[in-house]
Amino acid sequence: MSLAPLDAATLYGLMGAILVGLGLYGVVLLGGFLRRLLAFNLLGGGVFILFGIVARRGAGAGFSGDPVPQALVITGIVVAFCATALAITLIERLAEEDSDDASGGGS
Amino acid sequence: MMGLILDGGIALLTIGIAAWTIRAADDFAAVVGFVAYGLVLTLAWTRLGAYDVALTEAAIGGGATGVILMRAGARVKPAPAIRPSKRARIIVGALCAAVAAGLSAIVLLPPQPAPSLALEVREHLASTGLGNPIGGVLMAYRAADTFLETVVVLLALFGVWSLGRDAQWGGRPGPAPRSGDGGALPLFARVLVPAGIVIGIYIVWVGADAPGGKFQGATILAAMAILASMAGLVQAPPTSGRRLRWLLAAGPIVFVGIGLAGIPLAGAFLAYPPGFEKPLILVIEVALTVSLAAMLALIVAGPPEHAP
Amino acid sequence: MNVLLGLFSTVAIVAGIVFFIAGTVGLLRFPDALTRLHALTKADNLGLGLIVLGLLPYAGSLGAALKLVVIWALVQFAGATVAQMIGALALREHPTSAGRHRR
């Protein structure tokens, strides 16, 4: 295996790797559900960029990138949004329950 | 050379915004940082030549996710600031740096020649009747993935609805829109929503041959619905409404119907009979756009908050 | 002709960047919400307008050039609406200017 050439794909790939590291740091060490969820989404963005450079390196046949990883990333972004929405609704409901308990009563 | 400088600048900017978001002082600042991160990431996707992904990241990754994060940030009390010990920070930092280093090694030592399915995609693209290869992958080669993705969005909506209070099941979602803020937002909504609907439908239509597609277009349509509801122009429909539920189910039902019809007619689930690919894909896309727009708008609106 | 167009584009885009920087400096240095809104909306809209002006010669077709102008108009509209709403909220929460400083 030889070293990758210094081009856009390599630069963004390194960026993606650093984003994954940053996001992981945030998920582990930040306090509060919302901040952890944000860090998790940062992590997700980095992972998608890594997919993107695989697509970029697979360019050929007149396309600017291999379409299959790009389609996978589009699916991934939508699914990540759904997971985030579910997590956010859970967080909001938990906060409601906590404030209900504090004021005594509720359903 | 200039391209490399630009790419390096965008990469550094993204990393800087991510680091700032992690260290932001309060929740609102962190959400704003995240939306900015999504938009700069869109720039990165454009530089990587993935225009469809850039559209999706801007619409869903930055836009829709930012909206629901802001909604949560307004409702959830900020968590008490815990300062992890210096030792914990050093150890976790070292481990995360190791993860990043491992991924960088993968980036810097790629397999040669680079694996790619571009040739196979190009070969069979003409038979699908589409000009956009990503559309071809999403609707023809990996149509089962897209079908399951639509079902996942619907299940997420069910999950969001289930998290409302029992007494409010079936009611209208979202808080009552504030009135009396002046006419700025209703005026904005009145002008933008018709234009936005046209732009959304255009992006779905043009996705057959150029970057675009139903996910991006459906997100724009959902955003217009949310804008109209926030401005008080329309009231959110009750989640128990029969027409609303048929609207949500239309996309997956059409998709699975055409898929099952493919078994006797073309030999496999979601196989299109030759000669009918383009019309069938169009029918699926129209149904999916409508359903997805409703699903995304309702997911952003949240669980029911008014008793039916 | 091309050199002239290139020069025009460079001047316009650099001027746009200067206005963006001015707006950001205003955002960071002005004391309260209303003055910061002032800096943001005016300077940033003008900056974006100059950058769009500088990009017009390179648009490639009349349709693409029109799309750039429409984008600028939409950003103007959205910025004005949001500035109105934030300004109304800031005024409502702190009716006297004393309460609005350094937040």
Task: Give a concise summary.
With 107 residues, chain A is mainly α. Chain A has helices at 8-29, 33-57, 67-103. Chain A folds into 2 domains: 7-43; 60-100.
- The radius of gyration over CA of chain B amounts to 22 Å
**Terminal Cα span of chain B:** 62 Å
Number of helices of chain B: 11
Number of strands of chain B: 0
Give the uncertain stretches of chain B in residue-range form: none
| Class by alpha and beta content of chain B | mainly alpha
pLDDT averaged over residues of chain C: 87
Q: Give the H and E element order of chain B.
A: HHHHHHHHHHH
- Share of helix among residues of chain B? over 70%
Using brief descriptors, characterize the structure shown.
heterotrimer; A: 107 residues; mainly alpha; 2 domains; 79% helix; elongated; B: 308 residues; 11 helices; 0% strand; globular
Q: What this model shows, in words?
A:
The complex is a heterotrimer of chains A (107), B (308) and C (103). Chain A has helices spanning 8-29, 33-57, 67-103. Chain A is mostly helical. Chain A has 2 domains: 7-43; 60-100. In chain B, 71% of the residues lie in helices and 0% in strands. Chain B is built from 11 helices and no strands. In chain B, helix 2 (27-47) packs antiparallel against helix 3, helix 3 runs parallel beside helix 9 (214-230) and helix 5 (118-128) crosses helix 6. Chain B starts with a helix and ends in a 7-residue tail after the last helix. Chain C contains 3 helices and no strands. The N and C termini of chain C lie far apart (51 Å). At the A-B interface, helix 1, helix 2 and helix 3 of A face helix 1, helix 2, helix 3, helix 4 and helix 5 of B.
Helix and strand arrangement:
The complex is a heterotrimer of chains A (107), B (308) and C (103).
Chain A (H helix, E strand, L loop, with lengths): L7 H22 L3 H25 L9 H37 L4
Helix pairs in contact in A: 1-2, 2-3
Chain B lengths: L1 H21 L4 H21 L3 H25 L10 H23 L9 H11 L4 H9 L1 H20 L21 H23 L7 H17 L11 H25 L10 H25 L7
Chain C lengths: L1 H28 L3 H23 L6 H32 L10
Helix pairs in contact in C: 1-2, 2-3
